[in-house]
Amino acid sequence: MNLVALKGRVVTDYEVWEEGCVLLGDGAVREVSRDGGAAEEADEVHELGEALILPGFVDLQVNGAFGVDIAGRPDLLGELSRRLLSTGTTAYLPTVITSSLESYGRVLPVLARGIAGAGPEGARPLGVHLEGPFISPGRRGAHPAEHVRPPDIGLLGWLLELAPVRMITAAPELEGAGGLMAAARDRGAVVSLGHSDASFEVAYAALDRYAAGVTHLFNAMSPLHHRDPGLPGAAFAHPRAVCGLIADGRHVHPEMVALAFRMLGPDRLCLVTDAISAAGMDAGEFTLASRRVRLEDGVPRLDDGTIAGSVLTMERAFQNILAFTGCTLPEAARMAAATPARLVGEGRRKGRLSPGYDADVTVLAPDLSVEAVWVGGRQLYCAGKVV
Question: Whose CA is closest to 15, among 354, 325, 347, 262?
Fold first, then answer.
């Protein structure tokens, strides 16, 4: 076994160890020490100085990035996985928004093969996030109206057979939604409420019975109002709801991001990007599934002006959550890694720097830019390029 030691400022669940050490071996974290002593038994030592050593970021909502549109070119999953390393992302859910049956039948099997055959060269795709098609027509956002469908357990079963679905976003107020959410949960998919006009009562009941999460809190859902708290109010009130949040300062005002953090804390708030193919690219035209999107002034929009995903990266989301909320580095790390990993059932092997966990590590320079990335104990990114 080749043992690799990373020495620097180690960000644990609750503290930053200024002269810590993370020892990696055989694809796992072997030891984490406060004083750097673990490096003595290492075959290879990386002296990282003032850099921050964190658990690799986990993004539960990636439609694409760097010119790759998951629904348009699912065969480029491997390329996307490699490009995501530069953002500090070590695991993610490739996301498919509401689509035609023909598109699902074409895209999902290709993603299934890509996930099954994913090599050690990039961020790990953990499974598919189906965002739709069982959503509210009135809260569909950038999802195409013609493909939005009422709850259909038979259709759900077909979709779940096509690919390893780890998360599904659905609207709980639709007729038949309860049975659909129960079926998804019983098949091992995490149910997340979103693109929904649900009342507080309906949303809270769904969180109590079927759902574990909320998709991009505040966006494409019933609003938070003091007499009608809606889905956001139910998310705040329910003790177990874990909420994804797009912390780009555009989708949600920074003060509302701070409010969400105060209400939910780092163990019920997880950072997501909802990135589309325009992320990491210059202004121009791109696609989100079958829809044309134009990127201008840092915001991707449909022709009618509707915001269509984001160009956020996990690196930037981490920086923003610190700036918007004043949270600590360990709290930000939990929102970027441990909390999303736990939501999709990966909390015992990903998202923490702890013995036995996967050796997925993101190293940030003092200015919080990505300096290096290890996945499964292999260094895959360093100094601005894939290794």
Answer: 354
**pLDDT level of residue 241 (50, 70, 90 thresholds):** very high
CA distances (Å), origin 343, targets 76, 81, 172:
26, 21, 19
Cα 59 to Cα 88: distance, rounded to the nearest angstrom? 10
Q: Which two tokens stand for residue 222?
A: 């019933």
Q: Are 294 and 270 in contact (CB under 8 A)?
A: no
Mean pLDDT along residues 13-42: 94
The radius of gyration computed from the CA coordinates of the chain, to the nearest angstrom, equals 20
Q: Which residue has the higher pLDDT, 119 or 97?
A: 97
Q: How far apart are the first and last CA of the chain?
A: 21
> From its phi and psi, is residue 39 left (phi > 0), alpha (psi between -120 and 50) or beta?
alpha
Share the mean pLDDT of the chain. Answer: 97
What percent of the chain has pLDDT above 90? 95
> Phi and psi dihedrals of 225, rounded to 5?
-135, 145
Query: How high is the pLDDT of residue 95?
Result: 98
Catalytic member of 274, 282, 358, 367: 274
pTM higher than 0.70, yes or no?
yes
Q: What is the pLDDT of residue 384?
A: 73
43 is annotated as an active-site residue: no
Query: In this structure, are residues 211 and 191 in contact, taking their beta carbons and an 8 Å threshold?
Result: yes
